[in-house]
Amino acid sequence: MTKHIGVVACSSEGAALCYRTICLEGPQVLGIFNHPELSMHTFSLGLFMQALEDDDWAGVAELMLRSANKLKQAGADFLICPDNTIHQALPLVIPKSPLPWLHIAEAVAIEASKQHLKKLLILGTTFLMDGPVYSRELDKVGIGHMTPDEKRKKKVSNIIFQELVLGEFSDSSRRFYSETIDEYRKQGCDGVVLGCTEIPLLVRQEHSSLPILDSTRILARAALAEAIKDE
């Protein structure tokens, strides 16, 4: 028996990649065609966007909790959220949650430690790059971190909201991300966190001069490991 994974989704592209990764990599450990039971729930992305624009993290937490309760009713044993940005609301969620959560940035920090990385470039939405989600978890394991300068930061975020979450992936945006990564390699970073769950759909390792930490797939693999773990 494996545990039932509950997926609290936010934007569709990243959530789909996370879901697909669990289903495709499950057979590697469970045998052909087998993967853990999964259930997914998401409210309209528009509801999350309105709360983010209003700086209403309590509102984001409320949406996450409502999803958590629906997934509990569906039989989930634990929860993941394949969206880096809204993890900022997780401290408001956990005390009221009906189920335990895996933390995407914690999973990334563990993987970065395994790879002996020392200083990471963080890419994601402005909410994520300016927020505490990654700094908290990386500081715990003694890994340094940087975000792009304000001009690059704005463009990184605009590409996410104007293209990636809408399923648009352009060569020009890929080049911009690659050039940004290369610039911060020159400034001493030895790895890059793709800290928006859609970025891995645009940027793969061959597009990056730094080792990439694909937060989407790292979370999916952490969930898979949790689901098959013996109690």
List keywords for this structure.
231 residues; alpha/beta; 52% helix; Rossmann fold; 4-stranded parallel beta sheet
How would you characterize this protein structure?
It is globular and about 50 Å long. Helix 1 crosses helix 11 and helix 5 packs across helix 11. The mean pLDDT is 97. With 231 residues, the protein is an alpha/beta fold. The strands form 2 sheets. It has a 4-stranded parallel beta sheet, with helices on both faces. The protein folds into 2 domains: 110 residues, Rossmann fold (3-Layer(aba) Sandwich); 111 residues, Rossmann fold (3-Layer(aba) Sandwich), CATH 3.40.50.1860. It is built from 11 helices and 7 strands.
Euclidean distance between termini CA atoms: 11 Å
The name of the CATH architecture of the largest domain is 3-Layer(aba) Sandwich
Number of strands: 7
> What is the rounded Rg?
17 Å
Supply the number of structural domains.
2
Give the overall pLDDT as a whole number.
97
